TrEMBL record:
GO molecular function annotations of the record: DNA binding; DNA-binding transcription factor activity
Segments crossing the lipid bilayer: none
Record-annotated HTH deoR-type domain positions: 4-59
Secretion signal, residue range per the UniProt entry: none
Keyword Transcription regulation: yes
Species this chain originates from: Herbidospora solisilvae
SUPFAM superfamilies from the UniProt entry: Winged helix' DNA-binding domain
Gene3D superfamilies per the UniProt record, alphabetical: Winged helix-like DNA-binding domain superfamily/Winged helix DNA-binding domain
Keyword DNA-binding attached: yes
The protein, known as: WYL domain-containing protein
Keyword line: DNA-binding, Transcription, Transcription regulation
Organism superkingdom: Bacteria
Pfam families reported for this sequence: HTH_11, WCX, WYL
Classification via PROSITE patterns: HTH_DEOR_1, HTH_DEOR_2, WYL
Length: 317
């Protein structure tokens, strides 16, 4: 019975990973005969999974959309990745779903095996939201993220390679403190034993992280908390572009959309001035794009040129 149950779960997992399976191919993957495969498919149907079949030379099976959501079968890495995504959403990375994300995250963690639960719990308790929101722009390896969370929790020194903004790579040894999710990126706040100072590291730039087994006594962070430390560092980054634009919309409406990233000043009932500093022109370009109103770039001229380039690309699309 145990083998049959395991095979049925394996069958369900395969059906969920591909739109359509040929019968012979699916039977071969499971290591059973076509007749046994039919019995396993019937067993899934009895459990409420809407498995459709097609006869003939190209006959096979596919999992159809059902009236209700049946249980899903996911592997260890998929479970951790799901928890990471829910963690980000629960912190407001996706507007309007924070509350439901918290509920789902609690359910997922509750049914996880112990070997996974301690990884996800470490990530949840060692992460501090920064107060920013948005969708992550840089890909993060869930294994790296959970390993960093574990060494934060266990107060264990971490060794890793780090690629700086100028693409120079260096080896670091650090005492990890907390993870911070800005909505757009993940940062590790740690005391850098190589540079003998507190640093914030972008997790997507960290490679080959290794536990050292060496414990440490926590140092006092020179900020109210890890989120404040990261936000202060981001605000103090050099910003070569001082952007100013006149927007044909009421100041209140513009503040509601992009006020968290810039300063909005009314210059009339239906006109306002937007100013911001940025290390890249991509941010102001995207901000002006989501305003939903006509605007005029005052400076810098490089922004107007980028807008023309983006506009041409969008028109071609």
């Amino acid at each position: 019975m145990a083998n049959t149950s395991n095979r049925t779960l394996r069958l369900l997992s395969l059906l969920q990973t591909r739109r359509y399976w040929l019968g012979g191919e699916l039977a071969e993957r499971l290591g059973v005969s076509v007749r046994t495969l039919r019995r396993d498919v019937d067993r899934l149907r009895e459990l409420g999974y809407p498995v459709e079949s097609q006869r003939g030379v190209d006959g096979g099976y596919q999992l159809a959309a059902g009236a209700a959501l049946p249980p899903l079968v996911i592997d260890d890495e998929e479970a951790v990745a799901l928890a990471v995504g829910l963690q980000a959403a629960a912190q407001g990375a996706v507007e309007g779903i924070a509350e439901s994300s918290v509920r789902v995250l609690a359910k997922v963690v509750q049914v996880m095996p112990a070997r996974l639960r301690h990884r996800v719990e470490a990530l949840r308790t060692m992460t501090v939201p920064s107060g920013w929101s948005g969708s992550p722009r840089a890909g993060i390896d869930p294994d790296v993220l959970t390993l960093v969370a574990l060494v934060c929790r266990d107060q264990e020194q971490l060794r890793f390679s780090y690629t700086a903004a100028d693409r120079r790579e260096s080896e670091r040894l650090a005492e990890p403190h907390r993870l911070v999710c800005t909505g757009y990126r993940w940062y590790l706040v740690a005391y850098d034993l190589t540079r003998h100072d507190w640093r914030s590291f972008r997790v997507d730039r960290m490679t080959r992280p290794e536990k050292t087994g060496t414990r440490f006594r926590p140092r006092e962070l020179p900020a109210a908390d890890a989120a404040a430390f990261v936000n202060e560092g981001l605000e103090n980054q050099p910003a070569p572009y001082a952007v100013e634009a006149l927007i044909e919309a009421p100041a209140e409406a513009v503040r509601e959309r992009i006020g968290r990233w810039c300063t909005v000043e009314a210059v009339g009932e239906r006109r306002c001035r937007m100013t911001m500093t940025s290390s890249t022109l991509d941010w102001p370009t995207m901000a002006l794009g989501v305003v939903g109103a006509d605007f005029q770039v005052v400076h810098p001229p490089e922004l107007a040129e980028q807008l023309r380039e983006w506009g041409s690309r969008f028109r071609r699309a």
